[in-house]
Amino acid sequence: MILLILQVIIVGVVVNFVVIHFIIARMEDNVRDHAIQISNLIKRSLHQSMLKNRREELALTIRGLASEKAIKGIHIYNKAGVVAFASDTSDINQQVSKKSEQCIFCHATNKAKGTIPKLNRFREIPSTTGERILGLINPIENEKTCYEADCHVHSVGEKLLGLLDVQISLAQQERNRVEARNNAMLIFVIVTIVTAGVFARIIRTQIHQPISALIKGTQQISRLNWDHKIEIQHPDEMRKLAESFNGMTEKLKKAQNELKELSEKLEDRVKEKTEELENAQRQLIMAEKLASMGKLAAVVAHEINNPLSGILTYSKLIIRKLQQKPNKDAIDESIGNLQVIRHESERCGNIVKNLLLFAKKPMGGETKEDLKQILNKSIKLVKHSFDIKGIQLNVDFTEKDTYLLCDAAAMEQMAVALLINAIEACPEKSGVVSVRLERLEEKKSIRIEVSDNGCGIEQMHLPHIFEPFYSTKSNEKSVGLGLAVVYGIVERHAGSIDVKSEEGAGTTFAVTLPINDYDRHEV
What we know:
- The chain is an alpha+beta fold.
- Helices cover 54% and strands 16% of the residues.
- It contains eleven helices and twelve strands.
- Helix 5 runs parallel beside helix 6, helix 6 packs antiparallel against helix 7 and helix 10 runs antiparallel to helix 11.
């Protein structure tokens, strides 16, 4: 509202200034036209007296005309610039300079122009009283009645016979101008006040109050007060906006209620479906456990059945030999059979022990051990296998602290299993096995890598290599529990194992073990 009123004031001031300027300019033009009319009237009044050279009558007429309030003086100059007649007799016979205001326009150059333009006929004469006085030069031209008269000697070629100088007071015009300006300013002030009041009223009732109501409505809606209504009675766009806002509120309220109902129903449905999924999941887990147990039982039965069949067969042979008359050959044969029974029994024991280890059954207590020493000991245990197959061994151990709270026997078994797996995968005489040990400070863990340049593992077998009794080797002695045991050891130590393999390019097993709170203590 303030900006709008300021704009109205600025526009009003500009318009008022232009109007006043226009009015004053028109008044000035009117005064000059009026002065020309007065000058022409005086010249015509004096025409006969000048034509017949009635000097006394001419002087009396000039003094009579000068007695008018608006006329401050009348002078008639001859061609030589001498005052011939004047309302003030003291000015008669005075010589006027060509540089004076009356003559400068015609005598600006050495040769007189002979004519005076209309705009150059006017001049303002300074006054001691501060009153504005307008001076008008009216040329007295050589007319036909002059050069044909008997009493004059003016030739036809003469254009200018003299000048009529009339001085007119502008006091009344000044009063009119001041009055017009004051009236215009008063009207401007009144119009501005009325306009500002009207604008203020319109803005308050048509804009401010409706917008305040809309703001209040949005605040209520932001507080989720869906029952709030905006009441605007003005039959304009604001009322339509309020109606639209109320309609939107109704729809939002309806949508909110529908969402609330839907949410309640959805919660019930989600709860119901969650229970169904949990039941289904429990059933699936149970089924998977049963399937795994069945598979495990079948595999264990198959694996143990072979050594048990051998044990049973050789036991029958020993019984048969001993029932007969034993001799030295029979006793030696029975001893060989007993050794086979012992070997098969140990095989059954190893299968059960590895199954227990895979099932996370503890094999020993945890102590703080240096993984460097464990790896070096494991490498010594299989050193003869490297020598027999002519496989090169590369070792890269970090110089940082590698102490870890762990089951040393399990760690050694894990390392030996990974090394034997790498040895069996490498070709003779050209195989290379690399063992790397590093400490990952940013992850607070220790990483063991065992790599080989062997035949690699097909991608289809990678997801199953850690399953019990799953083996890709053709060797009949391979039970398929080595990597499963490794996986169980790593998992029991809260670690992780990753494998990267490319068929024909080798395999890398990476074991990452977290560092516990005791890893920095001295042994």
